Amino acid sequence: MASRTGFDVHQEITNRIIDAIETAGEFCLPWVSGHSGKLGRPVNIATRKAYNGVNILTLWISSLANGYSSNIWGTYRQWQAQGCQVRRSEKSSLVIFYKPIVVDDSDEDGDTRRERTIARATYVFNAAQVNGFTAIPEENVPSIPLFDPIERAERFVKATGARVQDGGDTACFQASADVILMPDRCRFTGSDVSSPAEAFYATLCHELTHWSGAKGRLDRDLSGRFGSKSYAMEELIAELGSAFLCAELGISRELRQDHARYVKTWLGVLKSDKKAVFTAAAKASEAANWLLAWQEEED
Question: Same structural domain for residues 193 and 206?
Fold first, then answer.
């Protein structure tokens, strides 16, 4: 479904995320489940491919708000093509895609044509909203692995090649030494939604996202776009990157308490810049995919 005339898809999605953050509360975020703690990466029913960027956030928010247990999504027509029927009065969720168009920049010197992309909105429904859905065979869907997720997390960290040192007072990426410092594993106590080991790896995924942005890797620089708020935005990218990685690795997680202080800053940036969350989610998705690619090369 195409965007209707005058509909600003960037503003609409940003508004939904702002509302979800404000509803979640000071020490929560809408992409962190308060129940099981695990969120599978959203997957499209037609392409069998995982969603990326801000679409992961919007679909997670819809899943948590409505209690959907499935991570499979599709448009009305895509479900029909699968022999399924969206139930009456079910409400859709908004996602965004970018459509290439050719622009004619003709002038007195001649005809110059170039390609650009425009953001378009489309609406999707979760598998929990349709009748006649049979679960996709797991070998065809990137989802939570059947084997021990902690074991997989250990292999994933090793594959990145990042230098990680345990025994620090706090978790951080020390750019000057190009090393990730982590507290001793025994200091992670876990919570109602995550085990001590999951808390450790979720925190390490956050620091690995920071590590990925260093020069010589993804060279992530936000100073021009966000100015004095660039540090808080880098923290948002790392927070989202950790969420995306944990979804791929099957790890339960929750918001680190020391990041709750950034929530007000994030809200301020989102309210003043309707494309800020798109930038953060895209950078986080890029970092997660880049980090996971090292594991795929080893496999």
Answer: yes
Question: Rounded to an integer, what distance in angstroms lies between the CA atom of residue 271 and that of residue 298?
Answer: 42
CB 186 within 8 A of CB 168: no
The CA–CA distances, whole Å, from 119 to 3, 104, 112 equal 9, 19, 23
pLDDT at site 1? 46
Question: Residues 64, 154: one domain?
Answer: no
In the numeric block, which tokens belong to residue 175? 């750019």
C-alpha angle with apex 137: 76 to 254, nearest 5 degrees? 80
Domain match, 84 and 129 both: yes
CB 247 within 8 A of CB 41: yes
Residue count (the chain):
299
Q: Does residue 87 sit in the same domain as residue 182? A: no
The CA distance from 196 to 186, in Å, is 8
Final residue of a structural domain among 126, 142, 158: 142
The string of DSSP codes covering 71-116 is -EEE-HHHHHHTT-EEPTTPPPEEEEEEEEEEEE--BTTB--EEEE
Q: Is 64 part of any domain?
A: yes
Angle between helices 263-272 and 9-24 (to 10 degrees): 160
The tens place of each residue's pLDDT in the chain, 299 residues long, gives 444 556 787 888 888 888 877 776 654 565 655 444 456 789 999 999 999 888 988 898 888 788 787 889 999 999 999 999 999 999 999 999 888 777 666 555 555 666 777 888 899 999 999 999 887 654 444 544 332 337 889 999 999 999 999 876 678 899 999 999 988 787 776 676 778 888 889 999 999 999 999 999 999 988 777 777 888 899 899 989 998 999 999 888 765 555 556 777 888 888 889 999 999 999 999 999 999 998 766 65
Domain that holds residue 195: 144-299
**180-to-171, 207, 209 alpha-carbon distances in Å:** 7, 7, 11
